Structure formats: C-alpha cells, structure tokens
Amino acid sequence: MSTLTDLPLQPMQVAIVGATGVVGQMMRRVLEERNFPVTRLIPVASERSAGKSVRFNDDMIPVVTVEEALTLKPDLALFSAGATTSLAWAPAFEEQGAWVIDNSSAFRMETDCALVVPEINPDSISGKRQIIANPNCSTIQMVMALAPLHQAYGIRRIVVSTYQSVSGSGAKGLMQLHTERSSNCRLTENPAYPHRIDMNVIPHCDVFLDNDYTREEMKLHHETRKILRSDSIQVSATAVRVPVSGGHSESVNVTFGQDFDLDEVRRLMASMPGVVVLDNPAQAAYPMPLEAEGKDEVFVGRVRRDFTAENTLNLWVVSDNLRKGAATNAVQIAQWLAENGLLH
Ligand SMILES: NC(=O)c1ccc[n+]([C@@H]2O[C@H](COP(=O)([O-])OP(=O)(O)OC[C@H]3O[C@@H](n4cnc5c(N)ncnc54)[C@H](OP(=O)(O)O)[C@@H]3O)[C@@H](O)[C@H]2O)c1
Fold first, then answer.
1. Ligand 1 pocket, 168 CB below 6 A?
2. In this structure, which topology does domain 139-321 adopt according to CATH?
3. What is the mean pLDDT of each run of 10 residues along the chain (344 residues)?
C-alpha cells in the first residue's frame, strides 16, 4: 500500500470540467485544502453557466466552455461532468498532453485506463494512457476497507447493500430532497428520482440492466475486481437511495478463502491509510453519515463474524461520497502523479 507524501510539487494549470457541480465544487475545495500548486484554475461548465464565476482561493474566476478550456492547454483536467462529456472531450485533452482524471464511468473498464484508489493500486498507472479513471463512490469506500483483508485472507464473495445519499445524484438529488422536505410533498417537475425521496427509501440507483441489477450495482462487481486485481471475486450488490444529504453507508458481508481472527481484522483495517475503525457498540459508537460528512476518511464499524456462514465477516462502512468517493480520491491521484514526476 502506498501513502502520499508532502514533497514540493511543480505549479500547473488545472481545468475542472464540471466545476459548478457538487463534485466540481468539492474538487476546488480539496485543491485549496491540500495547497495543490495551481498556477491557473480553469473552471468549465455547460452553456447554462455562461456568465457565472466560481470562487477559488480568494479569486472569483469566470467559467468557460470546454472548447475554450482546451485552447488554454491545461496540464491536468479533472472531469466531473458525466460520462457523455468525458467521452466527448477527455481524449482531446489527453491528445494534447494533459493528464485527465475522470470521475465518470466512461473509462473505468477500459483495459488501457487505470482505475485507481491511491492507497491501493497506484502502480496500475502505467502511462500507456493519460486518462485515469476515478472509481465509483460506493466502490471506493468498500475497497478501502476490504483491500487489507483481501491481501491477508483472499476475498471470494461480497454481498453488499448500499444506503446512498442524494448528493450522489448531484445538485438535482439534493434539490429534490430539500424541496420535498420543505414543502412536504413530492417534487414532480424534473425530479432526480422516480419517487418521492424524502421520508422514503428507493431500491434503485442508476438504470436497470438486462440482468435486473442496476448499473450502480454492477459497477460494484466489475470495479472491485479490477482494483483488487482478482477476477474470481464475486460481488452481489443492492444499491439503495436514502433521504440523507451527504455520506454513503454500506452493509458488507464478505466471505474469505480462509478463516480470520477478528482482532487481526480490526488491526489490518486500522493500519490501512485513510481507514478509521469506529467499533464500540457498547458505547453506541459506529460510523454514521452525519459524522462522516466533511471528512476524508472511510469509517468502518459493526465488525462481527457472520455466525451463519464459514469464513465470513459483516462490516458497516461509511464515507463522504463527495470527498473520498470523488474529489479527494481524484486530487490524491493528481498528487501521486505530481510526486512521481509524471505531472508538471
Ligand atoms: N455526486 C457524487 O457523489 C459523485 C461521486 C462520484 C462520481 N460522480 C460523478 O461526477 C460527475 C458529476 O457529478 P455531480 O454529482 O457533480 O453532478 P452535478 O452536480 O449535476 O454537476 C454536473 C456538472 O457537470 C457540468 N456539465 C454538464 N453538462 C456539461 C457539458 N456538456 N459540458 C461541460 N460541463 C457540463 C455541469 O455544468 P452546469 O452547472 O453548467 O450544468 C455541472 O458543473 C458525474 O459523472 C458523476 O457520475 C459523482
């Protein structure tokens, strides 16, 4: 496992494609918090944002179109504007020499594009392609908790149910929850979800596929195998939207190829950079989205043996989907590139 260092980095021009969205806003904040050496920030959004400015450090910076951003030749482009925009534009930035870190699903399963969680598999960055995919938010937090356990015991199967916040659907999801909560009725005009989300739980994230799973559920299967480099891991997922504004939670049931020791399981997870074990049921101490929101760590609790199945463990995993699930992970990848002399 690698950790990030505090080496001085070369200043660079950074474009954020989707800078007005909830992930883009968080990217600006994380770049600021980490003092990422930005000589010029280029905020990019759709035509709808023409005339708007966004704050970065103490400056208000006008938003530009993706075409304009391309002519400015950034060194780094952080994409968080959906898969269609990434597919249409990320290769053009790559072709003129920029590194692209893409938050959408567009390139995650491309064999030439690395799918990276910096604490787990930065060595999958080969330089063959300069587009690096940021995994899905629900995948990142799950593999952060499971990577050290996979190394120790070998994962065979995971059964995961997610409890995903509305900020995972971007500004539209937040708008629906807040409007319904304040008006106490269902938002009918341009809703993010097919049902009321306030006072409800919706077992439906992203679109349904031919196999009756949703795309979000299948992302957990495919991305976990790619990041943990094991095509024998089986992941059976149920992805659920809950009326929480920020922070995804997951109930994870994991079966290993061999037996484990519970104290060692806690120790292994606690020694993983970026993971905090919060597991004291007697004191009602366990991870919750209200506590995880605004933090970069992945929190794990309710660690217990599944008494109904051999070599099987139950966990509860919570993290801020906008931070480690998106912006923080993306900026950490950029830091890794810079620290390894690839980005300057
Ligand atoms: N939300 C999460 O927790 C999360 C986690 C991981 C990954 N992601 C991924 O991150 C991406 C953004 O998600 P979000 O939650 O931030 O959504 P969002 O709040 O809806 O923001 C979308 C952003 O994309 C911009 N955009 C849309 N169409 C564009 C176009 N044609 N050209 C340039 N910019 C365009 C929007 O600009 P305007 O303001 O002008 O419309 C806005 O800045 C998605 O791919 C999503 O799957 C999200």
1. yes
2. Dihydrodipicolinate Reductase; domain 2 (3.30.360)
3. 51 95 98 96 96 96 97 98 98 98 98 98 95 98 98 98 98 98 95 98 98 98 98 98 98 98 98 98 98 98 98 98 98 96 86
Strand partners, 214: 208
Residue 23 beta carbon below 6 angstroms from any ligand 1 atom = yes
Active-site residue identified among 137, 150, 178, 221: 137
* Three-state DSSP class for residue 178: helix
Q: What is the pLDDT of residue 181?
A: 97
Output the pLDDT for position 127.
87
Catalytic residue check, 113: no
Other beta carbons less than 10 A from residue 152's beta carbon = 16
Identify residue 234 by its one-letter amino acid code. Answer: Q
Taking the domains of the chain in order of start, what are their residue ranges?
12-134+326-339, 139-321
**Rounded to whole angstroms, what are the CA distances from 68 to 18, 42, 60?**
14, 9, 18
Q: What is the pLDDT of residue 9?
A: 64
State how beta strands 53-56 and 59-62 pair: antiparallel
* Closest-lying ligand 1 atom to the alpha carbon of residue 165: 3
For the domain made up of 12-134+326-339, the CATH class stated in words is alpha beta
- What residues contact 107, with CB distance under 8 A and at least 6 apart? 86, 90, 113, 131, 133
Closest CA to 83 of 136, 123, 47: 136
pTM attached to this predicted model: 0.96
CA–CA gap between residue 64 and residue 57 (Å, rounded): 18
Helix residue ranges, H only, the chain: 22-33, 66-71, 83-95, 137-153, 170-183, 215-227, 262-270, 289-292, 328-339
Residue positions counted in the chain: 344
pLDDT of residue 2: 39
